[in-house]
Design a protein that fits this description.
mainly alpha
Amino acid sequence: MIENPKVSLFNRKGKLYVQYYVNGRCVQKSLKRDYTKENIKLAKKYVIPEIERKILLGEIQDNRVKPKEFEYYATIYLRQKENLKSYYEYENIVVNQFFPLFKHKKVNEITKGEIKEWIDNRLKEVTPKRLRNILNILIAILDIAVEYEHIQINPAKNIKLPSHVKVREMKPFSEKEVKLLINNAQGQFKCYLAIAFYTGMRPGEIIALTISDINLNEMYINVNKRIRKGETDTPKTKNSIRKVPVFQNLKPYLEELIKKAKKKKTFNLFTTKTGKRYYSSDKLHPQWYALLEKCNIEKRVMYNTRHTFATLAIKRGVPIFNVSQILGHRNTQETLETYAKFINNEHLQLDRNLELFTDNSTDSLSKKA
């Protein structure tokens, strides 16, 4: 049934009000203007036609509609993202981070205070930058409730986040620790660690490797995919699609992986005990933490294998440009900003006999002096 878009104006205590009907309910709103001929004229020219248009299009709804549970709006949001490549990441955030708190909570009962409390707790585990991306998803979901006029204000908006919070300390392993870890690892995981420490590849990139990605004739690994949440897609960034050199120490581990893969008649270098590819690199965490305990090494995240490669490569004199390309960084500035604190004193290792000036005229002047 289409509403009768008749809209009228009236005077209440000297103020101009508008009156119209939605779902049979009379709605009266102040236009926040004095009841004058000039304001009445403007309202008839601009306000009334706009309200009539919105009534006919169904854009004005009955505010008596009861707000629904958070899950309702989250489902609408995810439906809007279904065709995106990053859909599973959105779904993961909604299901694992928002649902435990808000899933069956009425949207009008969600307060800014509890969102802020949740943010403060999450900052202990993730960076402000990452949390801002997560918070933007929550804002978008609650914006749907605002658009439906089920809530007036989005409680997730205008929440300040610190510019920086130290989350995890980057702790590269020493050469002794690297040898200890690789030597004590077993089977396929030993090969995984060798690749991680000798190439700096990300965990998701390593478990996605196939036989065709390894070129032992030209000694490089072709990095062109990763596995995240069971899905194979392109690496983290455009620059992450790259060729990584294979050092001689790594070659035997790759040969072993290829040999075993062919024996299993699979093109995947890393598979589970059931012969399937890994759903996520997180599945390796139990082996990783058990190995750290076995080697009596303090608990550190597995991603430190990447940091270890980067810092040791820089200290071994590998040009920063090359390190940046191997890691798949956007540019050398990103590499320097990430690892600057580990190379601050490298300039003190310079050969003091280095000849900076070899021009003959400079030498002759020195002798005359």
